[in-house]
Amino acid sequence: MKGSTHRRCYCRDPHTGKPLGKKCPKLSSRKHGSYSIRQELPPREDGTRRSFSRAGYDSLKAAQADLDHVRALIGLADADDAEGLAQIAELLEKVADEKAPLPNVEATRRRLSHGLDLTSRLTVGEWLDMWLAGKKGRQSAISRDESNIRVHLKPRIGHYRLDRLRVAHLSEMFEAIADANVEIAEGNAARRKAFEDLAQIPWKGARASRPP
């Protein structure tokens, strides 16, 4: 599928008021104007064409980086995977319409492989599920991670959208975990003290020790 970068400016003819476009004499300077990208997307189900366009790049390098990013997203689906291509095209259309940042390629790959809706906002809990599903290593380590996610992470931050997770959310989580650990330690200490106190009680029927 075709894609390209191009540069244009918004200067106008002082006499007619019409945009100069490529005829602007200042375009000979690389610092004049801005760059845009356009990438053809997989066609809609009815065969109509669609594309991803974005403008306002300060440099050709930045424009080319985003064009490569878009192409990498399209490349996540096999050429014969009509459903996957359609999902990615819908995602890129939504991103273009909302002027949102391009989604992370690896995160999109995981969502696509797990059959998740690409146009919905990924939550921390969903991301943790995908991360855990793809984790390799010793079963004991995986089980420990699963327990930490289930007990600590999901209940406290699993409901947040991944793109809206902030340092403050993590700080609150760690403080809550620390408080819970203190409560557990205090509870364990209280139980040990209770057992020690019980051990000092002379039980009925026990033989009294004889004096030396």
TrEMBL record:
<keyword id="KW-0238">DNA-binding</keyword>
<feature type="region of interest" description="Disordered">
    <location>
        <begin position="1"/>
        <end position="53"/>
    </location>
</feature>
<dbReference type="InterPro" id="IPR004107">
    <property type="entry name" value="Integrase_SAM-like_N"/>
</dbReference>
<dbReference type="InterPro" id="IPR010998">
    <property type="entry name" value="Integrase_recombinase_N"/>
</dbReference>
<dbReference type="GO" id="GO:0015074">
    <property type="term" value="P:DNA integration"/>
</dbReference>
<feature type="domain" description="Integrase SAM-like N-terminal">
    <location>
        <begin position="123"/>
        <end position="171"/>
    </location>
</feature>
<dbReference type="GO" id="GO:0003677">
    <property type="term" value="F:DNA binding"/>
</dbReference>
<feature type="compositionally biased region" description="Basic residues">
    <location>
        <begin position="20"/>
        <end position="33"/>
    </location>
</feature>
<dbReference type="Pfam" id="PF14659">
    <property type="entry name" value="Phage_int_SAM_3"/>
</dbReference>
<protein>
    <recommendedName>
        <fullName>Integrase SAM-like N-terminal domain-containing protein</fullName>
    </recommendedName>
</protein>
